[in-house]
Every structure is written in C-alpha cells, then in structure tokens.
Write a structure and sequence with these properties.
35% helix; alpha/beta; binds adenosine-5'-diphosphate; 6-stranded mixed β-sheet; globular; 10 helices; 4-stranded antiparallel β-sheet; binds magnesium ion
Length: 235
C-alpha cells in the first residue's frame, strides 16, 4: 500500500537519509528501529510530506505522493503521530480529539471515529472534559494517538510512542497500536529499541546512519553481532 523508493533527504548540506527504500503492506504493522539521531523522524516526516526529499519517491496505493502538500496527504488517509505530540494543553481532551478531524475526509465520520477512539481508550472518555494539561504522560500519549485516528487515517506513521514512558505504560501503548492494526489499519512505527513491539510487528527494518541496514520478518532472523551492539546495547 505504501512504498518508499530511494529516498535521499537533506537538511541543508547535511544528508540525513541515504537511498532509503521500504514497503508497508496493507493491514499490517511494520517497525523501524534505530538509535537516537539516525533518521527515524526524518524518514516518517518525509513519508508524510512534512519534509521534501531531494530525490526518491513515496507512493501510496500506487499514486506518487512526494511533492504533495501535507494537507492533501492527510486527505488521502496518511497521518503522522509526532513524538513531541503537539497537544493543545489548555483545551480539553474532547476538543483536542475533534481537532484531529479537521480534514474534509474526516468531518462526516467524526462521531464514528470518536466512538472508536473512546472504545480503544476508555480512559480518554472518562477524561474527555479535562484539559490536556492535566493528563499523565501515558494519557497524553493515548490522546495523541487518538487524535491521529480522528483523521480517518488508513495509514498511521507513529513516531516513538513509548518515549519517556514507564515499562508498563510502554507495553500498554504497544498493545493499543497492535489493536489499531487489527482493526484493519496499516501502521509504521519507529522506536529506538526492539522488545515487545518487535514481536508484534509483521516486518522489521533497522535504520543506521540514515540507511536501512537490515530487514526481515522477525527479530529472531537477525544474527548480526553489529546489530546487537547498535540496537540492543549488547557488546
Ligand atoms: P531520530 O528520529 O532517529 O532520532 P532524526 O531524524 O530526528 O533522528 O535526525 C536525524 C539526523 O538529522 C540527526 O543527525 C539530526 O541532528 C539531524 N536533524 C534532524 N532535524 C534536523 C533539522 N531540522 N535541521 C538540521 N538537522 C536536523
Ligand atoms: Mg525522532
């Protein structure tokens, strides 16, 4: 459904991504692992049109989306869930969620999508009239994901949803992401370390210094010693 072909992305003179190619199949959970600063966010932002690559192409259901406005890309059903979340702290949970449905394609489905978000995250329903400011780290993360779902996305690019969360909350967030996939959506997640999400993923890529250095269906297929050093901190 989504295909990235030979992407090269720069910040000025600095090259952050080198000939990156990958695929995400419909209705599946694909994961990219890479250490801090190795290009994970740059890759998701390039896919979602927030950054333009110098060369290469991203296609969604066979249509090239590179060069399109982010707005058009959202209308096509692609949503980026940022690692820094961009919630509106003074607005309520419900208001923040409704902001996720600003695009034309989502407006008619606001009720249905809100029902889905509240079913997936019952806690958000209880907290719907509280301001985002009052949420715990885990609740705020759920809200950011919920807001992404309000846009009617078919494809979600999720940037380090576990960042800064305690281990039990990380697991909870990963389980929710797996549930989102099971509801029929396609998900591309990036994380620094493997663990539970690697077991859930249908396919795995490793990103090192802006390059895909490995891909496989299972983490168990990776025997590379270098991988263990870079990605698991085992020496
Ligand atoms: P990750 O998400 O894996 O931590 P990033 O994609 O954020 O990595 O960053 C990849 C590289 O690009 C890093 O070297 C980072 O310093 C650089 N970079 C990221 N954003 C910018 C920017 N806005 N301007 C210049 N360099 C950037
Ligand atoms: Mg990042």
């Amino acid at each position: 459904m989504l295909e990235v072909k030979n992407i090269n992305t720069f910040y000025g003179e600095f090259q952050a991504l080198f000939n990156v190619s990958l695929k995400v199949e419909e209705g599946s959970l694909f994961a990219i692992f890479g250490p801090n600063g190795h290009g994970k966010s740059t890759l998701l932002k390039t896919i979602c049109g927030l950054i333009q690559p110098k060369s290469g192409v991203v296609t969604f259901n066979g249509e090239a989306i590179t060069g399109h406005d982010t707005k058009d890309i959202v209308e096509m059903g692609i949503t980026y869930i940022a690692e820094d979340r961009h919630l509106f702290p003074e607005m309520t949970v419900l208001e923040n969620l409704k902001l996720g449905a600003y695009n034309v394609n989502a407006r008619g489905d606001e009720k249905k999508n809100l029902g889905y978000v509240f079913e997936l995250f019952p806690k958000l329903k209880l907290l719907r009239n509280k301001t985002a400011l009052t949420l715990s780290g885990g609740e705020a993360r759920m809200l950011a994901i919920g807001r992404g779902l309000m846009s009617n996305a078919k494809f979600l690019a999720v940037d380090e949803p576990s960042l800064g969360l305690a281990p039990n909350l990380r697991s909870e967030v990963f389980e929710k992401i797996n549930e989102i996939k099971e509801s029929g959506k396609s998900v591309l997640i990036v994380e620094q370390s493997t663990g539970k999400i690697a077991d859930m993923a249908d396919y795995i890529y490793l990103l090192e210094d802006g390059r895909i250095v490995h891909e496989s269906a299972s983490i168990d297929d990776i025997t590379d010693e270098n991988f263990k050093k870079v990605f698991l901190g085992i020496t």
